[in-house]
Design a protein that fits this description.
It is a single chain. By secondary structure, the chain is an alpha+beta fold. The chain is 26% helix and 29% strand. Helix 3 packs across helix 4 and helix 4 crosses helix 5. The longest helix is centred in the C-terminal third of the chain and has 24 residues. The termini are far apart.
Length: 299
């Protein structure tokens, strides 16, 4: 991995000490692990992290004078929604050692996929004094720490995130979008997510009732399932590196697509399916509707 070194002095090792992120459950803190298996998009996350900063040591390492304003902040990013937002931002004292509690309440509807938490110590304002090679510009990062947690919804096989499409690159009135990233070796849970537009109340309601759907919910869910399946199968067929015989890593996109294609079209070769899709895409789409048994479970 190539790391870019900033053209200024950084905080020395040991000047900032972070405790692991904690998740508050009914005000009871528990350690935030590498994954939250029971999380779903209806669950907001209340997070907290304790950070100890030796401000004198930071100034010694960076060459910044006591007049330079320092701030400690956290930023979260969710790969599922593509959203990034700030949490706590706290100004540090001019000197001494201080303990800071950072925190944020992350809306479940804006999360999904891989949640990355970044804690940053930065120069808050422009500083034109200080030692040689000390940072000058506001926002100069003096120290940073990153941790991540995999969020897995109650639909374990398919990450889902409900977001406001007006805040995304997608049309405001679209219903859903299947986000596919990475390659065939990428872990499925990190490469695949269904984004649902929170403005579509009928759709969101059907998703929330998925465990015990009403007849109207079944129609919506069947439509979404058919479209998501078509998107995945077409993605597999467009990828010339995909086939049914390659050994992909466990839980990877390659394995997920192999299982899906083999289940929908048992006994048919990938070359045959690819030709069918390329030569008669409309007919192939209709065959896919039959394969997923669209609306068959709606009555």
């Amino acid at each position: 991995m190539i790391r870019q070194a900033p053209p200024y002095r950084l905080a020395t090792a040991g000047s900032v000490v972070v405790e692991p992120w904690q998740l508050l459950l009914d005000d009871t803190p528990v350690m935030l692990g590498p994954s939250l298996d029971d999380w779903d998009y209806r669950t907001d996350l209340t997070l907290r992290q304790s950070v100890t900063v030796d401000v004198d040591l930071v100034r010694q390492g960076t060459g910044l004078p006591e007049s330079a304003k320092l701030t400690l902040a956290m930023v979260w990013t969710a790969s599922g929604s593509g959203l990034k937002a700030a949490g706590s931002r706290i100004t540090l004292p001019k000197s001494g050692t201080t303990q800071v509690d950072l925190g944020a309440v992350l809306p479940g509807s804006q999360l999904g996929g891989l949640l990355v938490l970044e804690t940053t110590l930065a120069l808050a304002e422009y500083c034109d004094t200080g030692a040689l090679a000390s940072p000058r510009r506001a926002g100069s990062v003096l120290w940073t720490d990153r941790s991540s947690t995999r969020l897995q919804g109650d639909a374990q096989q398919f990450p889902i995130s409900v977001v406001d499409f007006a805040k995304t690159e997608f049309p405001d009135d679209a219903g859903w979008h299947v986000e596919i990233g990475g390659d065939l070796d990428t872990a499925t849970m990190g490469a695949l997510i269904l984004l649902v537009n929170e403005r579509k109340k009928v759709l969101v309601g059907a998703m929330r009732n998925a465990a015990r759907p009403r007849p109207a919910d079944r129609i919506v869910l069947s439509t979404v399932y058919a479209d998501v399946t078509r998107t995945l199968v077409e993605h597999a067929l467009r990828d010339r590196d995909f086939d049914l015989d390659t050994t992909y890593p466990d839980d990877s996109m390659g394995v997920t697509l192999q299982v899906l294609v083999d289940r929908l079209f048992p006994g048919r070769s990938i070359d045959h399916l690819r030709r069918r899709y390329e030569q008669a895409p409309a007919a192939f789409a209709t065959e896919l509707q039959s394969a997923v048994r669209i609306f068959e479970e709606t009555t």
